[in-house]
Amino acid sequence: METIKHRIDTRLIHAGEPKTRIHGAVNLPIFQSSTFEYTGQSSYDDLKYIRMNNTPNHVVLHGKLAALENAEAALVTSSGMAAISTTLMALFSPGDHILVQNCLYGGTQDFITSDLAPLGFEFDFIDAADPKDWDAKRKSNTRGLYVETITNPLLQVGDLKGLAEFAAAHGLIAMIDNTFATPVNFRPPEWGYDISLHSCTKYLNGHSDIVAGAVIGKADLLDKINHKLVHLGGSLDPHACFLLHRGMKTLAVRMRHQNCSALAIAEFLADHAAVERVNYPGLADHPGHDRARQLLEGFGGMISFELKGGLSATERFMQRATIPIVAPSLGGVETLVTRPAVTSHAGMSPAQRQEAGIGDALIRLSVGLEDTNDLTEDLDNALMG
Ligand code: PLP
């Protein structure tokens, strides 16, 4: 089936699927075979082997992920961090300089500052909403730019259009972590990004039962990343491919519910007497709201907020809430609540967190698929404590 002309809901289900159904199977079976018969391949990368990311389970996901963002190519990886670390190590060399958004997922920030910098990779943090800052930080050896569509955990939305244009004007590889937005709410290649990265552990899979990642983008860059991935060994197991494939088919339905539910919950929190501040790009007073409206097809399912009573109020609230499960991670069917300072951003030093604006009492909520009224009633009870 030619799926390129179809809308995203149809592409999620039909894009990339085998042209001929295997033994008529409506769902792609799991090819749990580490190796496949040699058929005369002349290149190492073409040998059929799970680590080469080329079993039927990988190939179908690659086609589907590329189709979702209207990109040339895609690659699944064993985790979001495998996608991010492999991409940076494949596309840049020691001595190269990268402009990096000043508030990112803690693992990414820690990888860049603690792992890449000692190897001789150079970077500078930038304010993604301030073009003057990008210009001031750009150097003769600047080769790339790295941002998040909606940042973790402060939910900032930078000047994503301007950043891609800036990268193109200066010959930089533009990379964006699109995990929080998902291809339903934002498709980076359509805005000029060369590489879009995902933790598929989150919304793409959607069921909190696997860890996986994806790189989506230009075919020549994907070839380099695949080559590095084969060496670093971050390939996804076929069984996890199968679960990701199954989860992805409902992405659009889930995201639309989560977009609506999170907006309603963010509005409820913003009006609540016990709440000091709410970060959600769908709220009119969010600093990136106008950009979010222009760029995104939905504001996503993530909210972060602070309570008036500081850390003790936060801890009381998290103990009293009964529907949200206190756990790191996000993007599943169940609502999760966490304190980024002790989970997703615990790898950053207290000074780095403070500089980035991630307070110890900040609460991050991943809104699931429960009934919105049940969630607001439960949050209300927890806030009254
Ligand atoms: N990117 C973002 C925005 C994340 O929130 C995370 C994990 O929380 C990652 C990347 C890393 O993904 P993974 O845990 O699948 O390696």
From TrEMBL:
Gene3D superfamilies: Aspartate Aminotransferase, domain 1, Type I PLP-dependent aspartate aminotransferase-like (Major domain). The keyword Lyase applies. Belongs to the trans-sulfuration enzymes family. Keywords: Lyase, Pyridoxal phosphate. One of its GO terms (cellular component) is cytoplasm. SUPFAM superfamilies: PLP-dependent transferases. GO terms for biological process: methionine biosynthetic process; transsulfuration. This is Cystathionine beta-lyase. Pfam families: Cys_Met_Meta_PP. The modification N6-(pyridoxal phosphate)lysine is found at K202. One of its GO terms (molecular function) is carbon-sulfur lyase activity.
